[in-house]
Amino acid sequence: MKLSMTVGAIAAATASAFTASSYTPSTLRGGSSLAALKEGETPIVIGLAADSGCGKSTFMRRVTSTFGGDQCGPLGGGFGNGGWETNTLVSDMATVICLDDYHLNDREGRKVSGLTALNTAEQKFDLMFEHVKALKEGKSVMKPIYNHVNGTLDTPEKIEPTPVIIIEGLHPFVDERVRELIDFSLYLDISAEVKLNWKIQRDMEERGHSLESIMASIEARKPDFDAYIEPQKAFADYVIEALPTELDEEDKKTLKVRAIQRKGVADFAPTYLFDEGSEITWTPSADKLSSPAPGMKLQYSSEEYFGQDVSVLSMDGTFDNIQELVYVESNLGNTNSKFYGEVTQAMLSLADSPGSNNGTGLMQTLAAFAIRELYNKKAASAKLAANKAVAAAA
């Protein structure tokens, strides 16, 4: 009875709180409703590394939605809405900066250099560091723009500091100076098998490309990905790893998703299943969480990852009804939710987004809640320090 009533309440709250209009910011950069930094406040910097097409945009939407208020929209309104072609997203609390904007050359320039955008020689790391440092110090910057439509480097745009600064792209953890400015780092790790399956589904089944052309495209990109992108996951505090399901080796669509959470990170406590520190394998009751074939399995354990102690939470399989996810949520600890059922409510709010019926959406939501909690803790510490300083000066 308690479970069914809670699910109904979550659905009702979601229907009213997450309407279509709530995803269009009412005021963009330059408007007074954007959260200004408080006196003495230092923005937190979040870094997200991933290859192209790995779900960064969906993840950013989950992160910014946890802070409430208007959701992310393009800086200045975006092209066609009185603005310009921009990769920067803003919300009430956060600014999301795409690191493609720090490309050294435009598309034609890379044809001359013979290098891909994945190659670190094609990135302006000094400028990236200077801008992240300035934003963390509460200063505005004039950031370049890489125009993905025509491949040009456009007129720079003004970026103002907000309480949360998110840098996302191919190379956020390459430069040690930038890594030292980041408060929490994440890596989206899509396995080669899953990438291939996704690309076949999109390019072959939906766009009519041949398997040979798809494989050639993947192989051409792989050396630079292996050399410049993948090594960064060693620096991540939180890795979301998407693997083929282990429940049916013939199934090419179902995923096993693991959240690899580093232990000992300041202001962060890894999410666990049932009992922290234990090793758990759990098949949820089909009466409480309906799941299509090949079924559903969750696991939790402690491991070592690139020489670091980590907690690993995994979900293998998909679920039919997001509302029933509250059953799983009730057995998780350290979710950083504000109330019972908030994880499920957040999943429902983005029900149409990719991964919302499997572990991808769940792990991204848990990571987003961890970022919100980290911000709240650092903001509280800064406020306490400010109050002590005022008291000492009185």
What would you say this structure looks like, in words?
With 394 residues, the protein is α/β, with parallel strands linked by helices. The chain is 34% helix and 21% strand. The protein is built from 10 helices and 15 strands. The chain has an 11-stranded mixed beta sheet with strand order 2-3-4-7-1-8-9-10-14-13-12, sandwiched between helices. The longest helix is centred in the C-terminal third of the chain and has 35 residues. The chain is globular, with a radius of gyration of 21 Å. The N and C termini lie far apart (56 Å).
How many strands appear in the DSSP assignment? 15
* Average pLDDT metric: 87
Contiguous uncertain segments of 5+ residues: 1-33
* Strand order across the largest sheet: 2-3-4-7-1-8-9-10-14-13-12
Give the amount of beta strand, in percent: 15-25%
SSE string, helices as H and strands as E:
HEHEEEHHEEEHEHHEEEEEEHEHH
From the N-terminal CA to the C-terminal CA, the straight-line distance is 56 Å
Class by SSE composition? alpha/beta
Rounded to the nearest angstrom, the radius of gyration is 21 Å
Bulk shape = globular
What portion of residues is helical? 25-40%
Please outline the major beta sheet.
11 strands, mixed
**Tally of helical segments:** 10
